[in-house]
Automatic annotation (TrEMBL):
PANTHER family attached to this UniProt entry: MAJOR FACILITATOR SUPERFAMILY TRANSPORTER (PTHR43045:SF7), SHIKIMATE TRANSPORTER (PTHR43045)
Species for this entry: Flavobacterium agri
Membrane-topology descriptor: Multi-pass membrane protein
Protein name: MFS transporter
Phylogenetic placement of the source organism: Bacteria, Pseudomonadati, Bacteroidota, Flavobacteriia, Flavobacteriales
Listed Pfam families: Sugar_tr
Localization of this protein: Cell membrane
Amino acid sequence: MRDKSTRGIWKVISASSMGTLIEWYDFYIFGSLAVVISTKFFPSDNPTAAFLSTLATFAAGFVVRPFGALFFGRLGDLIGRKYTFMVTLLLMGGATFLIGCVPSFETIGYTAPILVLLLRLLQGLALGGEYGGAATYVAEHAPKDQRGYWTSWIQTTATVGLFVSLVVILATKTVLSPEAFDEWGWRVPFWISILMVLVSYQIRKKMHESPAFSKAKAEGKTSTNPLKESFGNKYNLKFVLLALFGATMGQGVVWYTGQFYAMSFLKTVMNIESNQVDALLGIALLLGTPFFVVFGWLSDKIGRKTIMLTGMLLAILLYRPIYKTMYQTVDLASKTRTETDGLPAGMNLEKGEVYFVSSTGYTDGTAASVKTTYHFDESQPLGRGEFKESKATVTANESDKWTLVFLVWIQVIFVTMVYGPIAAFLVEMFPLKIRYTSMSLPYHVGNGIFGGLLPAISTYLVTNAKEAADVEFYLEGLWYPIIIASISFTIGLIYLTKKDTTQHD
């Protein structure tokens, strides 16, 4: 016979997770399509600057997440968890759909990146209010000794949302020609989100308020000023700072290194073909996602702190060896070429370009292609112009592909260790009446600021190191997550105690 304490909790988790998954999907299709988006909303004369600008716009959504946490967290502690995260769902879905409707830079100039930035900020505000509501809602339905297990299902939604975004993008690319996808097909994943949001809204509308919050509200024990009680009270503020610097800061950089930086590194540093990267990352995520629940369950048995700090420590020690192995796995300089070069030609008369694609095979099955474009300058006599050579696009052989899947999967395991127990960890640190507000801020500062800035900062460090001719330039971007995670690990190890993390259990 099913335990009465967990009866109906699957319905709660399904409804909460569906909405949270969709919000993460909405948030991450921007990052998943960053390479394409950089050519649509920014000037095309400097691809590196355009890509960095896209990553900065992506990061902007993270930077405003703490403000969303404060605004919606306050509403959640005042009027309830359910209605607050219904509003965030609709706000996220609307902003995502509109990003897919913004005209390109060629059409409206600098208005395009400004509009995208504004919509990206709305996405960040919405996500800032969503996570705290969903995590709190599930935790307040779960038995106290099983919070790690039940809330870990919410933790899977971030990774599953990224996985779904990759699947939708791959499916769109498969259905459309490369030209059609580049021209307008990249907008389809943004448009699809509005349908998903409407379905989730209908599901959430039928949910009931958290029983713990309903009881507190009926007894008049809810907060009248959640912001003041959360951050104006020195005792509670101590826990907010401990949660941030001893846990979520390190968790944030490990999360974004293992998933987003890994994807960016494979595409822009190792130059692996985009579809192949999406496929191997999708496999690694699919294989790694169950471990969120494993480590959430384990945290109920041996404690949240032990598992989270172990995940941080493994990441600190192993990131550089992992990324060095990744880079060397498909390094063309270490492979033997075969004589299979070809020069098929094409042209784009509207842009006044002729291009040549040089394909090179290697003895181990690796393939690489380089596109050389000749652009005619109409202002010059005899149609003179200039040659521009693209970076080599690499297609890894079958053996190397599975090596990369394994190396990304290891990073996903680090993610599951630090992220699986975090929701229960945060819920148990704060009292019910200010829980939504108090837990949301450190979570979104740790993830939004420290984690969200990681792709842009790390890519910038790699770019600078490459320009400086550093032999191992590709490892420089890892200093940021290693340093931040090391600080968080040290603070958590010294200052976080079991008593601190179960004050309001």
